[in-house]
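Reproducibility note. Readers wishing to regenerate the assembly model reported in the main text can use the exact inputs given here. Chain order matters: entities are listed in the order in which they were concatenated for prediction.
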Amino acid sequence: MAIIKGTGIAAVNYPTGMNLGGDPSQALIHATTTGNFFISLSSTDLGQGLKTVIAQIGAEALGVPFENVLINTADTDTGPHCMGTFASRTTHRVGNAVVQAAQEARKVMMEVAADELEVSPDDLETDGQGNIRVKGSPDRSIHIIDLALAAHFKYGKTISGRGIYMKPKSDVDPETGKMDPDSTEAHACTVAEVEVDTETGEVKVLSLKSAYEVGRQVNPALVEGQIRGGSLMGMAHALYETTQPYYPAVDHMPGGFSEYVLPGPMELPEIESVVLEYPSVNGPYGVKGVGEMTANSPIPAIVNAIYDAIGVRITDLPVTPEKILRALEEVEI
Amino acid sequence: MTEEKLNVVGQSVLRRDGLGHVTGKTIFIDDINFPDMLHLKMVRSPLPHALIKGIDFTKAEKVPGFIQALTHEDVPKNIYTILCLIGVGPDEEPVLAEDKVLYKGEQIAAIVAETEDAAMEAVSKVKIDFEELPTVYDVEEALKPGTPVLKHWGTNHFVYEGHHCRRVRFGDVDKGFDESDHIIEGRYQTSPVEHAPSETTGCVARPEPDGRITVYTNTQALFFTMDNTALILGVPFQKLHFVGGTVGGGFGGKVDVIVEPIAALAAMKTGRPVKYKFTREEEMRVSSSRGAWRIYFKDGVTKDGRILARKITTYADAGAYNRHTPYAVTKHAANIAGPYNIPNVWIDAYCVYTNRQPSSAMRGFGVTPASFALEVQMDKIAETVGMDPWAIRFINAYRNGDMKPHQKVVEDATLIEVMQAAAELVGYELPEKFKKMSSLNREEA
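Running the prediction on these inputs yields the following structure tokens for the assembly.
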């Protein structure tokens, strides 16, 4: 009886967007006379930070400060259609729609600024601080509040834009399975280090060290949030979580958190990661979906690490102490 | 990599709603209450498979605070399937059970009452006469002749354009096996898993003076839920107004359309706001879980580690109803062969019904079980051919320009790059040839 260490790896891909496409999302942008830009959506924020990330994309594409971009979501009366938040799709789909809407709004913004500054729109640039200025002559500029007031009261123009992103629906060939399921693919590789107690069958995950490739990070802290949350969820799936512990039997179903085993702070492993950026062909600023993928690579990496430690391959999740002890018993006999 | 100059994309700006979440100030469904609001609780099946012979509300109606009971007869379009909006059919799930139930916990009748306690008490007093039926829980058993048939079309599997399963056929696996030095098989099983969101699924439906219904909901997909609700209720779309956007954890558990149609119906029937929110027990035992998958691999591999053929038979346990599982099986079929370049692939992926609470979407839908199975299988292959687990993956890794089994050309591949970066992160010294490899081309190092 001993505590034995093992290491395992897993490398995975994860598709961005609803499988087969056909999942459009729209965005509407309008400036008010306050110089703020409202982005109207009907997308939902599940806690992953969509409202923040979309404001960043909107601010970048408009060329205005992040603080001046407000998100109005989600209301089916005021927000244009969004398919929903799932399939690692919203930053990609909604982000693309916002970029398109921002380009239309920005065009009007630059035209009004050009009239006010008596130059051609091509001679103008945004400084990202709230000013539109003449290239090479930063003294000649107009602030977005003055610009928004001028557009509305002087020129009778709306600074607004419409955006939609849709990957057309792909049909599956029923004979061969030929299809175009995704917009792009993100990737991850996790190295798990575990310790298996052969007396109790318990597994302790010492570390999960991973590399992710996500196209472009819009907000690295929020990507890190997905990584840490996903790593822990993957670990929980590998070792603890089940609503039917003796599947396919249905007995022993938990009915609350006192009966459903989730890892807590004591089980938290060392989580370390690097994030690579290879911009995707079709994501806004090259983004790929990262949300779901982060839970996937830890599971096989942990199972492979357990095998590395004790020489038994448990292929039935979750890998509970009971399964480990039973498998070890068989080996010893 | 592009060298585009960016101002705010790429910056870790503080998330705007974070402070509200961590200080408990964000408004969630439990914070939405109206003075005349009623509560809805569900009468559920205590049996996994049974005929309903009769329902008696007599005692329930006498509970102080009881307002109304709703059964399938009150639901205009009671039989639905959520994915009808993307062309998946046929309809097969009742909003409220009609003559039978297919899983323990299935919704049979809604009780609307003045308080939660009154609603729960009335629920406990509803008497239902059942005739128990035999059950099936195992996905492979379910496909055998002689097992109880759960679906009106006569089988326990979803039908994909006339086929028993979602098929992928690429190259010639038998030829690939013949040319292989090793045949490596594996059986993998995942388990149902709870989404475990902080906030349970719920909504409040409020009749407005203008005749519309406002539904405050924590759905992950507002229009999808509203459109399904309108179809179920048989009302014009403009009658509904859905408000949400802030969800206390989704993970896929809030893309089914369960609470909204019945709460909206109750609001229409009573003329008062109605809240229907799952208890933690309902969230765990009744609402959809992550599905369990059983996956069989058979790989043909050369002695130098090249995978020549991969044959996969896989079964998704949908539980009693479709929900989103038919979709997941296709997504699974597109990903189960893995991020590897394999010339011959054969996949049969089944969506199977059992007498279990329905499974549905969860983070990594269809792909999480695929990644688990195939990455454990990759280690098994490495061991069989006597190769390092890193090496087997580098040798077979897909690269841009390769053809996937579903006949899409690979682009945006970076499997090799993440493996190189992970090896470096943990201080594992890769052989020079793997360090030099790139996803951008097929040149061998």
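We highlight two features of this model. The longest strand of chain B covers residues 307-319. Chain B touches chain A through 121 residues (CB under 8 Å).
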